[in-house]
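Fold this sequence, please.
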Amino acid sequence: MKTTICWGVLGAAAIATGRSMPAMLEAPSATLLALASRDALKGRQVADAFGIARVYTTYDALLADPDIDAVYVPLPNQLHFDWALRALQAGKHVLCEKPLCVSSEQVARLCVERDRAGLHIEEGFAFRNHPQWAKLEEIIAAGTIGEVRAVHCTLAKQFLDPADVRNQLDAGGGALYDLGSYAISACNLVFKRTPLRVVAAMDRDPVFRTDRLTSALLDYGDRHAAFTVGTQAGSNAWGTHQQFTALGSKGWLRLNFGFAHARPTACQLEVGDSSSVGSFPSATYTFEPFNHYLLQVERFSRLLLGQAVPSWPIEDALNTLRTIEALFASARQDGWQTLAD
């Protein structure tokens, strides 16, 4: 009986070598078997550093390896769809970095191929694997803060390098694709549905032409969400500036490091109830540093091994991309946009 999942990685991107591949080495249910790099020298160097047995100089060669069960796709945004699709067609399960695609139409096509192939594919939001989000859902389900009426998010960092994919318009760069996808995913996670209509304001970099500051209001009918994301704002330290707050009918909760942890870091979930004054919490839950990339790889591998663990369908990504598309349209047309079905 199979006890580990054999992984192949397409490309030696920084997020792969810095976060996900080390996680594959540590995860008990994962085996990092193969790497494909179009740069043969770099591929060999990375393989030697990680003790990877098989190195390919084309992505197609890796996909043809019959021993690989799952493929990790950390490529630039505009390449996600093509290689996720090819991996599914090659009979591989897929974990693809966010955003899964750069259009909702692409995600819809992946849904069709997933169903045809009978395989599993997920968007790589590592934050969802962190136990603070399970605790958040537990608190909301218990009614501790009442019904959630509003959500507010902020994510920002200074990404100023012209070579950074976030600053390349044709590669799906910009604040909304990169950071806004976190905010939208979190809002939908809390409300368990998608917004009815959205409106956005955007400021674009005059050289890169990507949105460097985007603020959005999401109307869920009887509840609202608002977020601001920026690629030229906040701290320039190793961690993205992040805030997440949910306002309930009789309380509130707040995460002080709710999304991507570039380094495992202790964090807190604060809760305010009827005894709270101002923004001072009545209860605080502290979480030790967790490597949520390790948690993600281990959970995904265990899922493929048939174990009962959480998973998130790519229909979530479909809803996120529909929201992103509506926000871009709102900024262009200067008004509210209803989400497409």
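The chain has two domains: 5-124, 128-294+321-338. The mean pLDDT is 96.
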